[in-house]
Design goal:
The protein is an alpha+beta fold. It contains five helices and 14 strands. Helix 2 packs antiparallel against helix 3. Residues 4-8, 111-119 and 137-151 have low confidence and may be disordered.
Length: 290
């Protein structure tokens, strides 16, 4: 029998794995954390150990807790259709699939220079304006000013899906124009889409918001601007633990960390709102607690 070629027995190359792919969590570590939590709960009920020691054990478990083992949303928009598999719903504005880039939305804010310039009126124009006021009609100049001054509306889209209170949201986001503002995050439809939002805008300012029936309040904000307006895809990861601790990273570098227990129940949709600017979502992934 002929000997096999040398390169088939040993190779200097190994199988390649895409570094951008979403990797599964380490279930071994999570199993240990879950077992430790269970032991601490039982010890607290039986008063079997020093309370301070049990608090230290619980803090140790919290520091390694990664409860996001169930994939709840994973959409790369590769099929070219955001209306199915899964089905997103546009509630205002316009969204479309940009081939090779993902889900895109563009909202142009009304610039100050677009406002009609006020010119000095002649006596004849004043007379026409006065006549129009008496008759309840508008002159052509007034009609043009009214039409031009209408502000651009935001573009909003959402995906109905169960999202646990402890979640991990990962988006691949690109901004194509300066001075934009985008928000995304989980919401509860029963409470008017109340929940949490991660907002970007104002020249690189990131904000973590709690949204309720009376508006939104800032949970945390980046101390220094971190701009993504470079026409490149950036990875934004946002996690929330069972204890309400939320962390946000940009391209694997820490952005902010804050705790909020304003919402304790699960969410039922993921919302995206483009208030101004041109943005694309190349991929959206949400993992949660089973």
């Amino acid at each position: 029998m002929a000997a096999a070629p040398a390169f088939s027995q040993s190779s200097r190359y190994q199988s390649w794995q895409d570094p951008a792919a979403v990797t599964a969590p380490d279930t071994t570590v999570q199993d240990l954390v879950s077992q430790l939590r269970k032991l601490v709960d039982e010890a607290e009920k039986a008063r079997a150990a020093d309370p301070q020691f049990l608090r230290d054990l619980r803090a140790l478990a919290d520091g390694h807790d990664r409860p996001w083992s169930a994939t709840q949303i994973d959409d790369s928009f590769a099929d070219g259709d955001y209306t199915r598999g899964p089905a997103w719903t546009v509630t205002s504005g316009r969204y479309w699939i940009e081939s090779g880039y993902g889900l895109r939305s563009s909202v142009l804010a009304l610039a100050q220079t677009d406002q009609p310039q006020q010119k000095k009126m002649s006596n004849e124009q004043k007379a026409f304006a006065l006549l129009g006021a008496v008759l309840g009609t508008k002159t052509q100049t007034q009609q043009a000013a009214t039409a031009t001054a209408a502000p651009a509306s935001a573009a909003a889209i959402h995906l109905d899906s169960a999202i646990s209170n402890a979640f991990s949201i990962r988006v691949e986001l690109a901004a194509w124009k300066p001075d934009g503002r985008i928000e995304f995050g989980p919401g509860q439809s029963a409470s008017g889409d109340g929940g949490y939002r991660l907002a970007y805008g104002n020249g690189g300012r990131w904000e973590l918001l709690r949204v309720g029936s009376r508006g939104s309040s800032v949970v945390d904000v980046t101390p220094t601007p971190q701009s993504i307006e470079d026409n490149k895809v950036h990875v934004v990861e946002w996690t929330r633990g069972r204890d309400g601790v939320m962390t946000v990273t940009l391209d694997h570098k820490p952005l902010m960390k804050a705790t909020d227990m304003g919402y304790r129940d699960a969410f039922d949709r993921l919302l995206i709102t483009n208030h101004a600017g041109d943005f694309t979502f190349k991929r959206v992934t949400v993992q949660g607690a089973p």
